[in-house]
Specification:
Elements: H1 2-20, E1 40-44, H2 47-51, E2 64-67, E3 77-80, E4 86-90, H3 95-107, E5 117-126, E6 136-139, E7 141-144, E8 148-150, E9 164-166, E10 178-179, E11 184-186, H4 189-199, H5 208-215, H6 225-228, E12 233-235, E13 237-240, H7 248-261, E14 268-272, H8 275-287, E15 296-305, H9 314-320, H10 326-346, H11 348-352, E16 363-364, E17 403-404, E18 410-411
Parallel strand pairs: 1-4, 1-5, 5-15, 6-12, 7-13, 13-14
Antiparallel strand pairs: 2-3, 3-4, 5-14, 6-15, 7-11, 8-9, 10-18, 11-16, 17-18
Helix pairs in contact: 3-8, 4-10
Bound molecules: 2-acetamido-2-deoxy-beta-D-glucopyranose (8 copies).
């Protein structure tokens, strides 16, 4: 009894000693021994894009749910197949939701994402000069088109073609002089071409209403010939903007800006609200050694035209017209996307596990993860020849001649 009491007392004393001593606070292993290492991670942005993957015959992505701190309160869980090979998350819509959700994913100790392929699969507005509603597009460039100065159209100078002016510049057609780093991202073009090949094996969905709406773009000048064609799989680039715009002039202005910031290579064809934010989070994760930025596929299916057909009001195109393409665009995320997922899993050991070597520059406008950007003023870091595979880069020295701007952003001295 005494012995018992004594040991109970000892235990009590020991316990209080333990809890009073910061040195003895129990440490939890931040890296659990079993982490999920998906081969493909699907990024959806809102419910319909996510739910089209549920209940499909190919795999059960609701086999296992993982709550991830930092995810949207509307979409708190990642969903995975029981074996963890395929996972999905829902970012929530627009740039802030996308950036925070993806930053939370890559910081989560529940996943090992170092070999994972990422399939961004969402709907988007489409530029009828390049593609049409219900088409499936794969981007090489993602451009943050609204990261610019803006004047209301009633206050722009007579000789400006648009109220959007690149930051740090004084004319719409001048390369941005003040750069934040998220203006342009470029992904692995060799991987994109493989994904396009997989997607082209799909039979795309369409609707009678979409067929009818498209026909309005078949004008005699042929400006929107691509918009009048039946849906297909297209290689063209995505714009990111929190502002959901509609109209010929904004479409053309952002098309011009895409061409400008990608030094003539980018072809603006789809518009959505998340991709650059997602890519910035992924880029930082690559720099920290957590993901491989060259394993990202940006697939956007076209749910609506970004501008009216000739004679139609921009407001009618956005608010009232029955374009009929929302449902086919959602369907086509699955129909084309599942071919990409199956293609990657089917050739995992032979091809995809080791990675698809990029032949183009991959990364951001700063050259953050190495290499020399083929757009913009050039890498800002001293070691801009660093190989893409060298991940886990630490603090970097910024090149001389790159000065911080007095206000916001970097000022580049172009040509220096
Ligand atoms: C995972 O979440 C989904 C949607 O919330 C639910 O339908 C499904 O049953 C969950 N799966 C498991 C294994 O609990
Ligand atoms: C957004 O990302 C796309 C795709 O990588 C890139 O082409 C685009 O320039 C980026 N835009 C901005 C403003 O960050
Ligand atoms: C517009 O006109 C002003 C004043 O003549 C000139 O300084 C400016 O460069 C012009 N801008 C463009 C985009 O042509
Ligand atoms: C598109 O999908 C809908 C809904 O599943 C289906 O009823 C329709 O027949 C499909 N149309 C085409 C052209 O595939
Ligand atoms: C566009 O209209 C012309 C003339 O009516 C027609 O010959 C052509 O087939 C139409 N194109 C498409 C893609 O529907
Ligand atoms: C786009 O650029 C072209 C060629 O420079 C120019 O003619 C057109 O006015 C621009 N469009 C807008 C809306 O800025
Ligand atoms: C990809 O690049 C790595 C490193 O340069 C090289 O070892 C590998 O053989 C390349 N893979 C292919 C399939 O070309
Ligand atoms: C892109 O265009 C800008 C402005 O014309 C130029 O200063 C820069 O050197 C170009 N970058 C590349 C990689 O060609």
């Amino acid at each position: 009894m005494v012995l018992l009491l004594t040991s109970a007392l000892t235990a009590l004393l020991f316990t209080s000693f333990v809890s009073a001593s910061p040195a003895r606070v129990e440490k939890r292993d931040p890296y659990p021994k079993y982490r999920i290492a998906p081969k493909v991670f699907i990024f959806s942005m809102f419910d319909p894009e996510a739910e089209i993957w549920w209940g499909i015959p190919e795999f059960d992505i609701l086999g296992r749910n993982v709550t991830v701190p930092g995810f949207s309160p509307l979409f708190p869980d990642a969903h995975c197949t029981a074996n963890g090979d395929i996972c999905q998350l829902v970012t929530g819509e627009s740039e802030i939701n996308a950036a925070v959700t993806i930053a939370s994913l890559v910081a989560s100790a529940q996943f090992d994402l170092t070999s994972t392929y990422f399939l961004i699969g969402g709907i988007a507005g489409v530029n009828p000069e390049v593609a049409t509603v219900a088409s499936v597009t794969f981007a090489r460039y993602a451009v943050q088109v609204a990261l610019q100065y803006e004047f209301d159209t009633r206050e722009i100078p007579d000789n400006f073609t648009t109220g959007y002016i690149p930051q740090g510049s004084t004319r719409p057609d001048q390369y941005p002089q003040s750069i934040y780093g998220t203006e342009v991202f470029e992904v692995n073009d060799a991987l994109r071409k493989i994904a396009v090949g997989f997607a082209r094996t799909a039979t795309l969905n369409d609707s009678a209403e979409a067929v009818a709406y498209r026909a309005n773009y078949n004008t005699s000048d042929g400006l929107y010939a691509a918009g009048a064609e039946p849906p297909s799989v297209v290689e063209c680039d995505v714009a990111t903007s929190d502002v959901y715009y509609s109209g010929k002039l904004l479409g053309e202005a952002f098309s011009n800006y895409t061409k400008l910031v990608t030094n003539g290579t980018g072809v603006y064809c789809t518009t959505a609200q998340e991709d650059n934010a997602t890519l910035e989070a992924m880029l930082r994760a690559h720099a920290a050694g957590l993901v491989d930025f060259s394993r990202i596929i940006i697939m956007r299916t076209a749910s609506d035209m970004d501008r009216p057909y000739p004679g139609e009001a921009a407001t009618t195109n956005l608010f009232w017209a029955n374009q009929g393409a929302f449902t086919p665009a959602i369907q086509n995320i699955y129909l084309a996307g599942v071919k990409v997922v199956e293609g990657i899993l089917g050739a995992w050991g032979t091809t995809f596990e080791q990675g698809i070597n990029a032949t183009n520059y991959v990364g951001d406008i700063f050259g953050t993860i190495g290499g020399t950007p083929d757009f913009g003023p050039g890498a800002i870091f001293e070691d801009d020849q660093a190989s893409l595979s060298r991940r886990g880069v630490g603090r970097r020295s910024v090149k001389r001649g790159t000065q911080m701007k007095g206000r916001r952003g970097y000022v580049y001295h172009l040509g220096q």
